[in-house]
Specification:
Blueprint: H1 3-21, H2 26-33, H3 37-46
Helix pairs in contact: 2-3
Amino acid sequence: MTKKKVACEVEVQMLHDALKRFSGNVSATAKEFGMTPRAVHQKLKKHHIEAAIYRNK
């Protein structure tokens, strides 16, 4: 496995974990990582992750 693939998998796992912790709140996830919500949205799109599935209904 390449370093790039490992880094990508770690990033995906971190996004999933943060979204679970913050109930799908992208702004809180962004704050956790020191990023803008827009940057988080771009990463979610890149990895085909829907924040909405983590939101409480």
